[in-house]
Amino acid sequence: MFRGRDVLTLMEFRPDEVVALLEMAKGFKARYHAGEVYTPIHLGKTAVLIFEKPSTRTRVSTSAAAYQLGMNVIVANPQELQLGRGETVPDTARTLSRYAHVIAARVFKHETLEELAQYADVPVLNLLSDKFHPLQSLADALTLWEKKGRLNGLKVAFVGDVGNNVAASLAVIGSKLGWEVRLVGPRQLWRNDLSRLAEDAGLTGARVYQTDSLEELKGVDAVYTDVWVSMGFEKEAEERERLLRPYQVNASVMELAGPQALFMHCLPAHRGMEVTDDVIDGPRSVVWDQAENRLHTAKAVLAAVTP
């Protein structure tokens, strides 16, 4: 069903396939907590992980997931590869395909992943690009499933930089699972690509829309935020902070959302900026569950797509 497939956005997968990945992740997590950590489905196979950007959760969770599946893990940045000396992405993809069974990369430009996938003969996984963060959205969905007891019919508000990669992937997975995704942020950062979700939304009953009003937080199952200045946008920091200051998630915002609302963040968090300490450390925060679930969802993806 999944063998040999790339995971670049999750738009490549049908709604039922996304559910199947989440069910697999849930099973891996149950066995993990029962003491069955090592499940050598891909014993002796090799995963190459390339990181153009710094990483904590993605690097460690994906490496650990591959190891737990019995795989050899090679982690490198472009400067440790000939990519850093001018070798082309196609040549790198062709070469690594002869050594590895799966290539995963965290990149500045999504086009780099698309080029890797075009020329590689093995699956290519998106570990984060400027446009999408699909493995994060799988962990988010697993977390909400655990906390809310259901996968469909959820209402999730993403607050702040609604144009970023995490918001994009939340909208994608929400359209696959029949959620109402409210993208709450300043109009200057609104997306112009939501029409691509229409087909899935038509199948699942999902609704994804943008608003600049915090009043739209009322009644949601979760309030999600992310850093105001993502990697690669440092030159815009001052302007972004000015635009987004009214969208800080604090106690008043969580009160507006209601007592049923969980707090979510993909981490790392800039405390005092997009979220206050009392919220991220509060009883409704599920950020550490999200972080753990990066391991189990990465394990499901690697188990499913590795040939």
Task: Please characterize this protein's 3D structure.
With 307 residues, the chain is an alpha/beta fold. It has 2 domains: 15-132 and 291-305, Aspartate/ornithine carbamoyltransferase (Rossmann fold), CATH 3.40.50; 136-289, 3-Layer(aba) Sandwich (Rossmann fold). It is built from 11 helices and 9 strands. It has helices at residues 15-33, 57-68, 89-97, 110-119, 134-148, 165-177, 198-204, 237-244, 251-257, 277-280, 287-305; strands at residues 46-51, 72-76, 102-106, 124-126, 155-159, 180-184, 207-211, 222-225, 262-265. Strand 5 (155-159), helix 6 and strand 6 form a beta-alpha-beta unit. The longest helix is centred in the N-terminal third of the chain and has 19 residues, at 15-33. It catalyses: carbamoyl phosphate + L-ornithine = L-citrulline + phosphate + H(+).
Task: Describe the SSE topology.
Blueprint: H1 15-33, E1 46-51, H2 57-68, E2 72-76, H3 89-97, E3 102-106, H4 110-119, E4 124-126, H5 134-148, E5 155-159, H6 165-177, E6 180-184, H7 198-204, E7 207-211, E8 222-225, H8 237-244, H9 251-257, E9 262-265, H10 277-280, H11 287-305
Parallel strand pairs: 1-2, 1-3, 3-4, 5-6, 5-8, 6-7, 8-9
